Amino acid sequence: MVISTTTPQTKCNYKQPAWIKHGLQDAEAPVRVKAAARAMDSYQNNDRVNYIKLLDGGLTDNIAVVGFAESIDTAEDAHSPLSPQAAIRMRTLIMIVADAGRRTEPKWVEVKQGPGLVDMIDATTGTSISSSVRDEFDALKLAFRLWRQKLVRYRCGLPTVTVARYRGSLAGWDCRDVRMAVELVSFGDLPPADLTALNAIPTRLRLTPEQVDRTISAGRDAVRVNPRLRQAFGRAQGRAGIVMAVIN
Fold first, then answer.
1. Cα 209-95-102 angle, rounded to 5 deg
2. Neighbours of 36 (CB within 10 A)
3. What is the model's pTM?
């Protein structure tokens, strides 16, 4: 990502999208849409804002799911954020949310003294992020359930000629045949010995090649041992005529 320095006086061809106007004006808009709309609007229309200071997105959206949920909330069409053709052709959607958070016991739980200020700030931040991860994931699963209901109504309300044009034929068409799997995977899904080693890997931009390889391997293992993902993969592959469901 490249960010250039601009000020409210910088001229550009920006046009405020409809979802921001919706969030600012509609009293019935979702709370998170209202908050995002106010923030985006203030970047351009608040005369007191000369600079925007960026912090780690993990403070409010550690597993990066809010954007997708907001895209569903602000969609102007029943099929959005999918295209009409994709909404008709889709039968299985699998979303894997990766939580790479570390779970470590602080040293100060072993002694009577403490914690100190730095440890307290670290613990408070970590607790806040963990709590947001749980809330975000639960909200995402609810958003998917509601989106599937809306998607089914859209599909079932289409004329057969439109369905045939998007699919190529009506063979096997079932407007309600849409399955969605949303799963959270983390180091906690792995055996205790692996979990201990992975929790020792620091959270920073520079890691050793061994740490990178171990983290990648852990991600694959976390997906492989998830029974609901294995079931979803097997179902999707079976529909595609693939006999063996193998995750490398």
1. 45
2. 20
3. 0.69
Question: Tokens 């179902």 identify what position?
Answer: 235
Q: Crossing angle for the helix pair 31-45 and 66-73, nearest 10 degrees?
A: 100
Tell me: the pLDDT tens digits for 174-226? Answer: 999 999 988 988 888 888 888 888 888 887 778 899 999 999 999 999 999 99
Mean pLDDT of 36-61: 78
- Per the rule left: phi > 0, alpha: psi between -120 and 50, beta: everything else, 72 is alpha
Token code pair at residue 91? 């039968």
- Most confident residue range from 38-42, 119-123, 167-171: 167-171
| Helix/strand/coil for 229 | helix
Q: Would you say residue 62 has pLDDT above 80? A: no
Q: Give the C-alpha separation, 186 to 192, whole Å.
A: 13
Report how far residue 33's alpha carbon sits from residue 73's, in angstroms, rounded to the nearest whole number: 7
| Three-point CA angle 168, 78, 140, nearest 5° | 110
Residue pair 79/178 in contact (Cβ under 8 Å)? The answer is no
